[in-house]
Amino acid sequence: MEGLIQTRGILSLPAKPTGARRTLLLQPSHALKQRLSTRSLPPLSISSNGHSKFQSFHKISISNKERNRGFICKAEAAAATAGEGDSTALTPKVFGVEVTTLKKIVPLGLMFFCILFNYTILRDTKDVLVVTAKGSSAEIIPFLKTWVNLPMAIGFMLLYTKLSNVLSKKALFYTVIVPFIAYFGAFGFIMYPLSNLIHPEALADKLLATLGPRFMGPLAIMRIWSFCLFYVMAELWGSVVVSVLFWGFANQITTVDEAKKFYPLFGLGANVALIFSGRTVKYFSNMRKNLGPGVDGWAVSLKAMMSIVVGMGLAICFLYWWVNRYVPLPTRSKKKKAKPQMGTMESLKFLVSSPYIRDLATLVVAYGISINLVEVTWKSKLKAQFPSPNEYSAFMGDFSTCTGIATFTMMLLSQYVFDKYGWGVAAKITPTVLLVTGVAFFSLILFGGPFAPLVAKLGMTPLLAAVYVGALQNIFSKSAKYSLFDPCKEMAYIPLDEDTKVKGKAAIDVVCNPLGKSGGALIQQFMILTFGSLASSTPYLGVILLGIVTAWLAAAKSLEGQFNTLMSEEELEKEMERASSLKIPVVSQEDAAPGESTSQLPGKSAPTSI
């Protein structure tokens, strides 16, 4: 408050006013205000010992024009400072952080841990199911993302938008997350054991023989439809539970200052979850070694992992309930622009018309396309190296653990990046990292021949080398995303009004996220049909990657300026609200009568006694 109100005027306040004197100073009588506005007054100064003294009554004249001139005054109001300082001193702290803040941050960190723990298990499992299944391969992924994942994501967004208009935030949270928990439990214990009965494999074989091998991808979706549904639900967990539910809740209960300090640190706990969940996946994937012959080791592993997913989901619900029960919400600026409830089409039109939302959408779509351009090629080589579901899953467990370690390290550096260089630089690091690592991966694929002798000396085959390089590309890209890109994206929502925040997050995170992945899949499908194979189209994919990352960087630069502007406006509104609540009549130096020496007015460093 001391920095907020510093004044140069005819009124100077004591360092520590107390009791009735503080009330008198902050709320001057009507008669005093009338005298200030109708007649000449001497400069009034109140010394630190509480005695007021008056000088002559003919120095300053305040005209109506001067009184009505709008300006933001900064007063060195020790009264407000002392009052706020006393309350701050009484606030309990732990390690320099207020207990009230810790009651928000610790549960949020635990929620993020549980959500990311589940997401790692689901992400690794969904790839194993659809890539290693009989009659399927990695080529199913572009078709699956385009023709199944994207339509279901759009349908969910439309449903979520409707529900957000009729349900409370608490009811909306439980309504969305409980079906996820129930489905994953049912898949592990009911749907997968019955997969041989519910999958139309005979029909798929007949259609494949009739249509030819080029339709293997679309037919595989029908052949293993329950696995594809699991794939989509796992993808939606990342888009809905991580982005919409968790980050929407975090933005609701935290302030901007808390977000800048703690959002990057949320990832520390989340990436500890990646490390432990990666070890969990590998442990259960290796259970097959200890099972007898004839036992479906993957089915046993899947039941154990889905049990953990259900338990973590229930823990998320409990933490959400606890925070809503015991943690107060922060006060927001009261001068937000009120927006009426909008229907689905009106919401989409509003979001499309907003440059701020468009830039945010560009960031999300560009990431999805960029990472997808190299991911499918890497997974196809991964299946060739590890054809067994348990071996594939064990490698993915190691991959997740390495991703967690790399991201944990990046998280330790992220707060320094935000403090030192700001939001804009942090937002541009992820596309830069993805561009550099993607070029390295494509270069190895295109010019692998000259590297073959070196690879042999390292004791690896060219296939295994390609698998490791692709893994490194994904690790560095995802660690940059989790430590910098996601906090930047979520911080960008904070200064928006509630209507834009809720519907904007639903549109961007639920639709634009899979739209980016589906966009990359469409590009790959087009390249395969045009050039005959994914390998033949690799040079063109590299050029497309360069163009996408360039657009990403341009959108980040545009969003940086808009974000800084909104933050400045919000801080200005809060200053005006705080200043108006004090109701202190002040006159700036500029309003002094002509010829008045500024030395006769109290300085801004301390009150002046006469």
UniProtKB/TrEMBL annotation:
Membrane topology note: Multi-pass membrane protein
InterPro entries given in the database record: ADP_ATP_car_bac_type
Superkingdom of origin: Eukaryota
GO molecular function (one): ATP binding
Localisation per UniProt entry: Membrane; Plastid, Chloroplast membrane
Any Pfam family matching the protein: TLC
Keyword set includes Transmembrane helix: yes
GO cellular component: chloroplast membrane
Keywords of this entry: ATP-binding, Chloroplast, Membrane, Nucleotide-binding, Plastid, Transmembrane, Transmembrane helix, Transport
Region (Disordered): 577-610
Segments passing through the bilayer: 105-122, 142-160, 172-192, 224-250, 262-284, 304-327, 394-413, 425-448, 454-476, 526-555
Protein name, as recorded: ADP,ATP carrier protein
Protein family according to the UniProt entry: Belongs to the ADP/ATP translocase tlc family.
Bias-annotated ranges (Polar residues): 596-610
